[in-house]
Structure formats: C-alpha cells, structure tokens
Amino acid sequence: MTDHTRTREDDTDEPTHTRRQYLGGLSTGVAAALTPAVTATLPFGLSDPEAMSELATTYGGLFGGEATEIAIEHGTARNPSWPVVYEAGKRESLETWLTESDDRELLSEHQPSRSATVIAPPSHIRPLAANDWIEGVDINFEASRVEPVENLDTRIDGSGLGFSDLQRRLVGVLSAVPSTSGLATATDAEEVTPAQVRQLINADTDTVTSLDTSGVTVAVVDTGFNPGSGDILGDRPADADYSPRLLPESKSIIDDETVADVGLSALSDPDGHGSFVASQILANPNTDYQGLLPNGDLPAVKVLGEDGGGTMADIAEGIRYAAEQGADVICLSLGSPQYGTDIDAALEYAVEEGAIPVAAVGNDRQGTRWVATPASSEYAIGVAATTGNPAADAQSAYFSNLGPHPGTTDLSNGETNGAMPDVAAPGMKIRALVGRPNGSTTERVLSGTSMAAPIVAGVVGLLIAADSDLRGDYEAVRSRLKDHARPIPAAGTTEVGAGMVDADAAITETETDDQDDTMSDEAFGRNEAYRQVSRYQGGIFARFL
Known about the structure:
The protein has helices spanning 19-24, 29-34, 66-70, 91-99, 122-129, 165-174, 194-200, 206-209, 259-262, 273-282, 312-324, 341-352, 449-466, 474-483, 493-496, 503-508, 515-518, 521-536, and strands at residues 73-74, 79-86, 105-110, 115-119, 134-137, 142-145, 183-184, 218-222, 251-252, 257-258, 300-302, 309-311, 329-332, 334-335, 356-360, 381-386, 396-397, 423-426, 430-435, 441-446. By secondary structure, it is an alpha/beta fold. The strands form five sheets. An eight-stranded mixed beta sheet has the order 10-9-11-8-13-15-16-18, with helices on both faces. Strand 19 and strand 20 form a beta hairpin. Residues 1-46 and 539-545 have low confidence and may be disordered.
C-alpha cells in the first residue's frame, strides 16, 4: 500500500507518524513486560507483500486466524472475497489476472477510484499483492450499524472504565485509578426530542432557523429508509409515492436497485435504524420531531440488511455511490472494530469528490474501546455521544468509544494511530418519528453514537447552507466544528474530542473555550488513564492488553 504521511489532528502533543515510522519506532517497554508472549500468524509466509492489509495476512493462519473467522466466503469452494485497489492505468492488468484462472471472479468494481472486489483462493492473493501495480489488498468481512443501546443498564464494572485487571494495575502504578464521576449511565439520561436537541446545540437561534436548507444534500448510508407515507420528509404530492426530497437515485447496494427502478421497496427498512438516523437529520413534520435540515434532500443508500449487518465491500461501494450522487454530507452510523482498507479508500474518494463524511465512533467502550472504523479514518468526522444536557452539564455516555487509538488493536498496521472523537452530540435516549415499511409512522427512543452522528451531520449541512464556500471543503468544515464546539467540563478530550457541537457558534465563528482547559479533576484523571492505556497498547504485543 502506498505509504501516506498522516496529518490526523489529535488533542495531544504526542507526535503522529507515517505507518512505517510508527511500526518501526514502537516502544514495548512496560507493556511487553506485562503481557503474555504470543506467536505471530503469518500464513502467507514470513514476508507478506506490503500491499496486503494486516488483517488479510491472517486468513487461514495458525489457530484459524482472525480473518478466517470473519471473512465473507462464496460458493461451494468457500473462497473469500478481497477488496483490491490498483494503480491508475492498470485496469487491464487486473482483467488479465482475473482471466488467468477459473477460480477468480470479479464481484464488484468502481473504476473511478480504482477499486474492485474479487473472489479468489487465498493462495492466489499473495502473488497478486506482490505486483507493483497493486496498492492495497484487504479481506472482505461483515460490519454493522453501530448497535443502538436500547437497554441502558450499566455495563460499568470494577474501576468504572471497563479496564481489565491488568490495565487497572498498570494505570494504578502510574497514577490513581480515576473516578467515574461525569460518566453517564441510564439514571443520568433523560429523553430528548429533536426540538430539544436543537436547543442544546444552539440550532434554534434566529441565525440558524433563518437558513434555507433546500440546497443541501445529505446521504444516509445505512439500513434503508421508510418515508412513512410522506409523514417524515413531508411535501409528498398527492399523485406521488414519496416526497421529491427523497431522491430517485436512492439505492440498495445489496440488491443493486434504485427507487427510480423499483420504487420504495428498494429501501425497505424493517430494522428501522437508517430511518431513525435520516429522520433526525431531515424530518419535516412541522412538530417537535423536525430535523435540522427540514428542506434538505436525501439520497438514501442501503448497505445493511434486515439484521443490521453488511459487508465492508458494500459499505465502501455505498460511500462512493453517495459521493457520486452529489452528496454534500454522508452520515455513517455504522462500523467495525476492525480496520478496512477499502472503507478508508472510499472515504478518501468521497472527500475528493466534495462530500463530507460524518461517522459514529462506536458503542463499545467497555470492550473494543477505541474509535471504530470508519470514524477512525482521517477522512471522517468522528462523533461521540453525551447526555441530552447543555454542554456545561452534559456527561459522556458510558458506551461511547474513545481515543487516542493506539493503532495496534484493529489490525490497521498503525493507520489509525492517534484517531480521536472530533466532537460530541447528544446520543442518549433520543426520541424520533420513524417510518415503517407499511407506510405508518411510530415514535422510537434509541441511544448510541448512531444517534449522535446524524446531529453533527445536520450541523455540517447547516454550515454549508450558511456559507457555500464551505461546500466540499472537508478540512475547513472539520476545523470549524472543532474550533467552535462548547467544552464539556465533566468529560475528557479522549471522550468528547473538542466538546459539544454548537451550530450557531460554528456558523458565526463565535469564540468558545477550549475543552482541554475546562476539564474537571475527575475528567482529567480519566483522560490521563485512557491515554496511558492507549500508550501502552502501542506496542506490537500490547494489543492483547
């Protein structure tokens, strides 16, 4: 894979590195001394091609290999599928490779971004990856919507941070085990409607409510969308099946069907997750359930099935498709703790096409802990979740994933090193009006970073509506959100990034205080503990902490 220098913005003075610099300069120190010895799995030989992802190299390895357990396999031969990125001008080389064996098949392809997904035996992949015209090869596996936390019973145990006994001992040796004060569980959260959310993030001011959002397009890449007989987006003509704000290019990547081709069945969403997310952003029932962009357009892109799961290849294709439909913003309330080369490449392509991806950081602080893919990419704005309170009183949601990512626990070869939540938004007990496949509507209450990400996606849309020069300028939008977020004293930067997103402040460029300077003593202690665990998971063996 081409080695890019990362320019990830991290609220720490610790340096960021290229992938090679990072892996070459790891210090295992205390971590290696405190972790069990392990045997590396190198199924393809002692020297795998650099183009292969770390996860891909584990397929079929000793003890099964991690990729073996999660790979998508096809046909009676059970051959895996592999996302591949090739160099410009080398499409014919890939075609030649495909025709050299009957065991090789092209599953899907996106030529503008030089990306393809091929089915082939593992023994055929290493020689492919060794070609100098191949930039990257990964394994295709299943990701899912960022599971909404419907039962907010506390999962906090021990120290309250979800640390293992070993990690607690490590943190305790270096500093006092920190307090959980300011970390919100079920009893700390109250239900909030979209109208209340607008108040919490200062999106109810005259400056914001006077904006014309009709020129903004937000793609929701998720489980589909149920328009609820027009009650969600509104403005449905009497002789039409859906509002003109639902673009006919809306598509199921799974079935390769658009709304223009087969109607609303292409987006049928029994799961309801995508419908909930889209409602938060774009609903226009003229009630408390109105979204942040009540006149914006929706290209819905279905990449996840009825069970909320989908392949990384489909998600990557959905991101690219959304960008090509002219989406200003792409909302991604989905992900995986495992890094995906194809996802990262798709996000980079989307940014180049002028889209601004916004992604949920994940709901597994007590498990996988660190910012999940795709939020861990430098090409996505990562969103953490808080309670539905003003920033001064808000608390970090106990399930919301963290930074800085050590880059060693997701088989990313260090690509995610330093990844942090960028900003936070309310994501606990959010109530929304959601369409059903039968055309009716219902009210649902969900919790998760899946519910926080669409709020930030909506604010990005408001920024574009306020200043057209920001359209397509990913770094400028990201900086505007972070520079003008409101600090959350009860939380650490590892938990909420720059703080709670503030629509009015971001639009008017109003000065706000810095999150680093306002942390309470308890939040600071927790912040340092998380940084300490990340630091000592930064060794090759420390991923098993």
